[in-house]
Each structure stands twice: as structure tokens, then as C-alpha cells.
Amino acid sequence: EPILRIRDMEYSYGNGEMALKQVSLDIYKGEKIAVIGSNGAGKSTFFLTTNGVLSPQRGEIIYNGQEINKKNIKELRKNIGIVFQDADNQIIASTVLAEVGFGPMNLKLHKDEVMDRVDEALSYMNLSSFKARPPHYLSGGEKKRVTIADIIAMKPEIIIFDEPLASLDPYNADMLEEILEKLESEQKTLLISTHDIDFAYRWAERLIVFANGRIIADGAPIEIFQNR
Ligand code: ADP
Ligand code: ADP
Predict the structure, then answer these.
(1) Where is each ABC transporter domain found (predicted)?
(2) Dihedral sign, CA of 129, 108, 160, 120?
(3) Which of 66, 71, 127, 228 is the most buried (most CB within 10 A)?
């Protein structure tokens, strides 16, 4: 059974145009999915509706067998984490510790559990020595790692990376690939949007191609590239 099932999802920002049109797909636990498509194709909108930040006007989302509605939409946000492209817009707290603790605190977990999760996420991201630092003064790559720690501390089942490679230097890009390998070994389900076709081909088991708000291809990278 798929972990996430989406049927005929449609989303409009209210300007008459549909940013997503009849989007349907099933996602299985542990899949490694690359999402590609030109700017404006709908990738970000797809991510934001998939994790419940935006509510689609039409369609069905079934998470772990449970149909999502207004009352349980929080289940999506809790279980599907997004690492946004722009780390600066994602960081809100004045120390790395408070930043990474913010999500678990919002889950109303016990204080000890929050601290355990923060320690675990920081050590996972090689950031343990950064706890007391103000995140805004870190380097771009370090900020990116903080935003990934934010998501890891939530222990989501599915992690979405919105163009993670776009702003990273080679050192941090290598580090990101190591983190992806660790997450894969833990059977996390991963979706990554990218303009880097070489990366998508090398990394992904499944490729989803968006154009004009629709999924125009979905399958093994080798099959999709053969048909283009
Ligand atoms: P991406 O890198 O995901 O393609 P975009 O450049 O599409 O990012 O969008 C960057 C930001 O601008 C996002 O927050 C998006 O919601 C917003 N945005 C994109 N298109 C529009 C638009 N036509 N009107 C208002 N905001 C937009
Ligand atoms: P992508 O992530 O593939 O670049 P988006 O999901 O950002 O695509 O955009 C899909 C469509 O929705 C585009 O036409 C874009 O201009 C529009 N859009 C995105 N964000 C907004 C927004 N906040 N307000 C209005 N239109 C938006």
C-alpha cells in the first residue's frame, strides 16, 4: 500500500489560472524521487499542497490509508517535511538550538524529548558545536544544514528538498549527498526537485516531470530519457 496517494489534485492561487491540474500519483515508502520541470511548472505548488501548507481546491490526498480533510491536515505537516530552497526565509530563531527545537516544541512534545531530538538532529548534521550560534550569521551551506536539521528533528516520514543543490558550493553539495545516503539507509521517502539532470539521473529511482501544472511523465529515469 502506498504511503501517500494523491488523486486529481488541483490548485489555483485564486488568479483564475490553475497551478496544478489533475495531479495523481502514488508514493511508496523508501522511494527516491526526483521532480523536474521548468520554472513555473508547478513543482513548489505540488510540494506545498502535498504537505498541507496549501489546501487544494479539488482532489483527494490519502496519507497512510487516512483520507485527509480540514480536521486532520496537520498529519501531513507533521509527517511530510519540506527543506525550502531559500534557507534565510526558513530560519526564524535567534540561536541554532532554538531554531531546531521550534518544530518539536510545536508538536507539544515533552521538554526532554525536544532536547533529545535537537541533539540528535544537530549531531546528524554535524552541527553540535553550533548550538549557541545565531543562525543568521552562519555561512550559506551551514544555514542549509540548519534547515535540514529543523526537518530531521520533526522525524517526518517523507522529506522534500526544493532545489537543494541550487545554492550549495561543492563541499556542501557533497555533504548533502552524504546526508541523503544516510536518510536512504533509514528508509526515508525522499523527493527532490532539481534542474540538475545529471544528478536526477544518477540519484533517482523515479522521475516525475511537471509541465504547466500537470505531470507529463512519471517512471524510471532511463525510460523517461529514452522517450524524450
Ligand atoms: P521555484 O524556485 O520554486 O521555482 P519560484 O521562482 O517559482 O520558485 O517562486 C519563488 C517564490 O515566489 C515562491 O514563494 C512562489 O510562491 C512565489 N511566486 C511564484 N510565482 C508567483 C506569482 N505569479 N505571483 C506571486 N508569487 C509568486
Ligand atoms: P515551480 O516550483 O515549478 O517553479 P510553482 O509551483 O512555483 O512552479 O508555480 C506554478 C505556477 O503558479 C506558476 O504559474 C507560478 O507563477 C504560480 N504561482 C506560484 N506561487 C504563486 C503565488 N504565491 N501566487 C500566485 N501565483 C503563484
Answers:
(1) 4-228
(2) positive
(3) 127
Q: Note the helical H segments in the chain.
A: 43-50, 74-79, 87-90, 96-106, 111-124, 140-152, 170-185, 197-203, 221-226
Cα(171) to centroid(ligand 2), Å: 31
Terminal Cα distance for the chain, rounded: 30
Q: Tell me the per-residue pLDDT of 43-88, one tens digit each, with 9 for 90 and over.
A: 999 999 999 999 999 999 999 999 999 999 999 999 999 999 999 8
Q: Which amino acid is at 34?
A: A
Are residues 136 and 106 in contact, defined by beta-carbon separation less than 8 angstroms? Answer: no
In this structure, the strands spanning 206-211 and 214-219 are antiparallel
Question: What is the distance in A from the centroid of ligand 1 to the CA of 226?
Answer: 31
Determine which residue's CA is closest to atom 14 belonging to ligand 1.
Answer: 44
Q: Residue 142, Cα to own-chain centre: how many angstroms?
A: 18
Quote the pTM value.
0.91
Kind of pairing between the strands at 80-83 and 158-162: parallel
Cα separation of 133 and 12, whole Å? 40
